[in-house]
Amino acid sequence: MLDLGRRTDKGEKVKAIDATQGLTQLEEAQRIVLESTPILGLEKISILDALGRVLGEDIVAERDNPPWDNSAMDGFAVRWDDIKQEHAIQKTVTLTVIEDVAAGKMPSKSVGARQAIRIMTGAPLPKGADTVLKVEDTEHTADSVRVFKPEQQGANVRPQGEDVKKGECIIGKGTRIRPGEAGMLAILAKSFIFAYQRPRVAILSTGDELADLDERFSEEKIINSNSYGIAAAVQEAGGIPLLLGIARDTPAALKDKISQGLTADILVLSGGVSMGDYDFTKAVFLELGAAMNFWKLAIRPGQPLAFGKIQGKLAFGLPGNPVSSMVTFEQLVRPAMLKMSGHRSYGRPVVEAVFQEKFSKRTDRRHFLRGVLTREEGVFKVRTTGAQGSGILTSMVKANCLIDIPVEVERVNPGDLVSVQLLSGEAWITHADPAQTSGHPLSCC
Ligand code: AMP
Ligand code: MG
């Protein structure tokens, strides 16, 4: 393990040991981040707010579903014994209809010998009956029914408890709520559930060169895009973004904003951790009592990164370049947010895809190339979005995945298999037109 000037929890300085030009492997940084990340408490939420949330309790069925045997079809509830013999000698069977049971009603009578009860889909099966004949397989009047196609014993009956049995744990603690789970919660009459809290993430951009969207824009300024990209990434990961705006490049401004951010669960700062101003951010972080790591990560984009705790809250100092801040958010902040909010796995889905280009690099860093993943004739194929500079935010706009090229790989050729992290659920199953510059199905260019 590399130890790059990290402070221990007791606040003692540990001397930097810099065995590999000071580079820290991403896996090592991820391990430290996740080990430092607490899991948030629970809160009671409405079933209508449950989508994407993580369940903080086991949901045990308090009754069977369906609660009684019921009909899967509109038809007639009958006794199999009445029709099986006639069926065997290929005769039609005529039964007396003694009641009509609509869905939402309980039958008041039992089906006796050579009797039937007309029944609607979902209605409880009357006592005595064990089979439902589909209405289209009969000829009927108000008080009799002739059966032509008797099916089998038990046909079209949904037995009590076939879906859910009373006493069983149906949805476990730690499950992410999807539409299926939401429907099941309703079946189990859970209008409120306990879920893990959503992490509140304070977002701070730093730099004298930045102008915010509501400021008058002058030529020498750069628009603060990181706050908005990161806020969206926070929301996508299920968190609540709190925008702190821009801290100017003075220790006082930075200190003031960071202190405001400590009401949140996580503070994400971008900019001010590259070589030029690294020491300045570092000094403020340390002054606020932080047990911080200052890493040069062995990844591209996104080399400089600060991580630690300030007054017990997780604090990340991400690189300022827009793509670097997004890629480092993906690899470090997002997993921490997912852990905090009770998820059991913290990574994006990964698939193997056939690389379509030539790519070479030095063997000192893991690269995350922005890519377009398509599926052609059953095979996943991936190409880059084009220019890969850390200031080229269109590479993120065009991408539906990150192509993960390991540290030790020097060259990738067309036809080689590469690992791909999927950035969005829907995009990777689209069949993108290779003539388009973007893999996004709604792209205009
Ligand atoms: P820094 O890490 O502060 O040296 O910034 C590196 C690069 O990222 C510079 O070109 C900055 O202008 C740019 N940058 C820093 N913060 C932001 C931001 N919030 N939005 C857009 N670009 C930024
Ligand atoms: Mg700066």
Topology record:
Layout lengths: L22 E2 L1 H11 L5 E5 L12 E2 L9 E2 L3 E4 L1 H9 L4 E9 L13 E5 L11 E4 L3 E3 L3 E4 L9 E2 L10 E3 L7 H9 L4 E5 L3 E7 L3 E2 L10 E2 L2 H11 L3 E8 L3 H11 L4 E5 L7 H10 L3 E7 L1 E2 L3 E7 L2 E6 L3 H19 L9 E6 L3 E2 L5 E11 L2 E6 L9 H5 L2 E5 L5 E2 L4 E6 L23
Parallel strand pairs: 1-19, 6-7, 14-17, 14-18, 15-16, 18-22, 20-25, 23-26
Antiparallel strand pairs: 2-13, 3-12, 4-11, 5-7, 5-8, 6-10, 9-10, 19-21, 21-22, 23-29, 24-28, 25-26, 25-27, 27-29
Helix pairs in contact: 1-7, 4-7
The structure holds adenosine monophosphate and magnesium ion (MG).
Molecular structure report:
Helices cover 19% and strands 30% of the residues. By secondary structure, it is of the alpha/beta class. The radius of gyration is 31 Å and the shape is elongated. It binds adenosine monophosphate and magnesium ion. The site of adenosine monophosphate (AMP) has 19 residues, from helix 4. Adenosine monophosphate is lined by residues 205, 207, 209-210, 222, 224-227, 270-274, 276, 319-322.
Brief write-up:
Helix content is 19%, strand content 30%. It contains 8 helices and 29 strands.
Keywords:
elongated; binds adenosine monophosphate; 445 residues; seven-stranded mixed sheet; binds magnesium ion; alpha/beta; six-stranded mixed sheet
Anisotropy-based shape: elongated
The helix/strand class is: alpha/beta
- The helical percent reads 10-25%
Bound molecules: adenosine monophosphate, magnesium ion
